[in-house]
Amino acid sequence: MKVIKFGGSSLASAEQLTKVRNIVKNDPTRKFVVVSAPGKRDTHDIKVTDALIAYYKAYKNGNDVAENQNWIIARYQSICDELGITGPVMTNISADIKALATLPIQGNKFLYDAFLAAGENNNAKLIAEYFSENGINAKYIHPQDAGIIVTPEPGNARLLPSSNEKINYLNELEETLVIPGFFGVTEKGDICTFSRGGSDITGSIIAAGVHAELYENFTDVDGIFAAHPGIINQPASISELTYKEMRELAYAGFSVLHDEALLPVYRASVPLVIKNTNNPEHPGTRIVAKRNLTGSPVVGIAADGDFTSLNISKYLMNREIGFGRKVLHILENLGIRFEHMPTGIDDMSVIMRNRYLTKQIERSVIQNLTETLEPDTLHFEKNLSIIMIVGEDMNEHIGVTARAANALAKAGINIEMLSQGSSEVSVMFIVKSDQEKAAIKALYQAFFEA
Ligand code: ASP
């Protein structure tokens, strides 16, 4: 049996939903269908999840919410009308959307999550009804009944290990199950979402829990490209990737798949395929434990901007026992997560994402580090991008970094920092953000066009 997940763009309109129905109907092993909330129909449209955020804000601020409610209900209604759905599902959806504005505001740390989750939850009800009226024996199932029990961390839920057994019972149900993505339920019964884009995570959790033969993740592209198509004209498409390679690429900007979505299928050894709802015959990109090595050391080049480096130097740093620990302890106390930590003999850089920093936090970091460690120099360096060249076959090849560095040098790009993890799945270059695109072009040329 397969788990199949559809993203918001695949569910945005009646036209898309017709394709979705055909895809599910054409293969009876597609038994578990995980759905996102309706996405944008065109670039000017609003995602239902974003409309729910606006609704939440209006409600929390005590504003009139009628317009927000009407827009969201009308969005579902128009899909229902176009699909000719006759059942009473819209009454249920409409009541559910309105009921959000009766939830307690004070002391309710799951309020935001309850609003957000309504996009997926109501879409699953609508799709189950549509399937049932069109030749698929389908049933909507709430994450609580599916056994997706999660930690009570709003916007950042994690599956409780004990859930897997409960999820496995879904195998015993006969119908094609339509499960809303993006959220689970805590042990106390509160709705708690994963991070944004988290329906991919639900698909993966279900695939692992039911021991699916395949997790099919349907989106609006033919799979994964070796570099961003907005930067490289018609980049090579990748037919197979390992979980590790995908993890590295997803981390650094390949947003086709949520980076947390790999873990459950990886642990359960369920292969994953990224496919296109608009072109389902295309084989897409398969993500597997082991792939046929193609001979090329690099499978993909990813980049992500908006990084900041905290640069610390102190003469004889290497002799000072506990220096690194003290730095990290200070960051930990201030709630800052670090991403990378390249070091020299007398200096150390801590790379973090800009979004976790504010002027106030930066001041506290400088103050605490100065008092505790008396460094010679200490400053934040902004506007950095990381560029990763990724490929499991890299450790079998000599000169991959040399080739990359050479390409960057020829393009006049200064490498601010460079790092390679022990697993040799990727090499990471840090460059100034205004050189990010040029760096991708130079690396793509060196590894895919040379
Ligand atoms: N609808 C949610 C979001 O926009 C989750 C998802 O689409 O995966 O983030």
From TrEMBL:
The top EC class, named as a word, is: transferase
Can you name a GO cellular component term? cytosol
EC numbers for this chain? 2.7.2.4
Task: Please tell me where ATP binds in this chain.
Answer: K5, F6, G7, G8, T219, D220
Keyword Transmembrane belongs to the record: no
| UniProt entry keywords in alphabetical sequence | Amino-acid biosynthesis, ATP-binding, Diaminopimelate biosynthesis, Kinase, Lysine biosynthesis, Nucleotide-binding, Transferase
Which Gene Ontology terms describe the biological processes this protein takes part in? diaminopimelate biosynthetic process; homoserine biosynthetic process; lysine biosynthetic process via diaminopimelate; threonine biosynthetic process
Entries under SUPFAM superfamilies matching the protein: ACT-like, Carbamate kinase-like
Query: Gene3D superfamilies given for it?
Result: Acetylglutamate kinase-like, Aspartokinase, catalytic domain, VC0802-like
Q: InterPro entries annotated for this entry?
A: AceGlu_kinase-like_sf (IPR036393), ACT-like_dom_sf (IPR045865), ACT_Aspartokinase (IPR054352), ACT_dom (IPR002912), AKIII_YclM_N (IPR035804), Asp/Glu/Uridylate_kinase (IPR001048), Asp_kin_monofn (IPR005260), Asp_kinase (IPR001341)
Pfam families assigned? AA_kinase, ACT_9
Residue span, ACT domain:
389-450
Q: Which reaction(s) does its UniProt entry say it catalyses? A: L-aspartate + ATP = 4-phospho-L-aspartate + ADP
Q: In which pathway does it act?
A: Amino-acid biosynthesis; L-methionine biosynthesis via de novo pathway; L-homoserine from L-aspartate: step 1/3; Amino-acid biosynthesis; L-threonine biosynthesis; L-threonine from L-aspartate: step 1/5; Amino-acid biosynthesis; L-lysine biosynthesis via DAP pathway; (S)-tetrahydrodipicolinate from L-aspartate: step 1/4
**Record-linked CDD domains:** AAK_AKiii-YclM-BS (cd04245), ACT_AKiii-YclM-BS_1 (cd04911)
List of residues binding substrate: T49, E120
Q: What does this protein do?
A: Catalyzes the phosphorylation of the beta-carboxyl group of aspartic acid with ATP to yield 4-phospho-L-aspartate, which is involved in the branched biosynthetic pathway leading to the biosynthesis of amino acids threonine, isoleucine and methionine.
What family does the entry list?
Belongs to the aspartokinase family.
NCBIfam families given in the database record: asp_kinases, PRK09034.1
**Listed name of the protein:** Aspartokinase
What is the scientific name of the source organism?
Pseudolactococcus reticulitermitis
